[in-house]
Design brief:
CATH class: Alpha Beta
Shape: globular
Distance between the termini: 61 Å
CATH topology: Uracil-DNA Glycosylase, subunit E
Number of helices: 10
Strand order of the largest sheet: 1-3-2-4-6-5
Strand content: 5-15%
Order of helices and strands: HHHEEHHEHEHHEEHH
């Protein structure tokens, strides 16, 4: 034992380095929810989407519209897809529908900057048409990964396209809006609610009363879960 200690001491002395001893274990792995890690995962996802080929949406769009908002937010909003204004700027919900969304959030004391926003499809459909079921299915793979990265406590699903991507197409938004649902993505459960898309409300203003009811439910859930926003 004594010889072994002497040998070890001689080896240490022969190396020109300073050693700092600490009883605390070294953390060699970054936590998944650290901002730097989230940013890296989002960049990797964005890169995957940019490499999509044989896609009419991508081929006809000017820019990819990936996301906007606070990557650490506990509230995530999923819309349909970019419109003309979004396609020009490269951010979701910046046109008339975006202005209405801002007012809707403000009505329940939420600043747009404090939530995280994305769409089902990341490229503008030609002539602002609704994405096809094939396109929805293709992009929903990336959307699910997007949700897992942000890991929100509340997932707000806006419009029938987002509902089809995350809940299914065998239900009607008019019947299922305003109800809390649990969506499971890769064994992780997310509390979600379906509500009307702001673009639909611009076309059908008489439906705003139902949207207001949904917004109050969202505010109530935020308070119940003690979400700081």
């Amino acid at each position: 034992m004594i010889k072994k200690q002497i040998i070890n001491e001689e080896i240490l002395k022969s190396i020109d380095s300073n050693y700092v001893y600490n009883n605390e274990p070294i953390n060699r792995f970054k936590k998944l929810n650290e901002p730097e890690n989230i940013k890296l995962q989002l960049e990797n996802l964005k890169n995957k989407i940019s490499l999509i080929d044989n896609c009419d949406l991508k081929n006809n769009a000017k820019k990819m519209v990936f996301s906007d908002g606070n990557i650490k937010s506990q509230i995530m909003i999923v819309g349909e897809g970019p419109g003309e204004k979004e396609d020009e700027i490269g951010k979701p919900f910046v046109g008339d529908a975006g202005n209405l969304l801002n007012k809707m959030l403000s009505a329940i004391n939420i600043n747009r900057e404090s939530v995280y926003i994305t769409n089902v499809v990341n490229f503008r459909p030609p002539n602002n048409r609704k994405p096809t079921s094939t396109e929805i299915n293709r992009y929903s793979i990336y959307l699910r990964d997007h949700i897992l990265i942000i890991n929100p406590k509340i997932l707000i699903i806006m419009g029938s396209t987002a509902m089809e991507a995350l809940v299914g197409n065998n239900i009607k938004i008019s019947k299922d809006r305003g109800k809390w649902k649990e969506i499971i993505i890769k064994n992780k459960t997310f509390t979600s609610i379906v509500t009307f898309h702001p673009a639909y409300l611009l076309r059908q203003p008489d439906q705003k009363k139902y949207s207001w009811s949904d917004l109050k439910e969202i505010r109530k859930k935020i308070d119940e879960l003690n979400i700081n926003i």
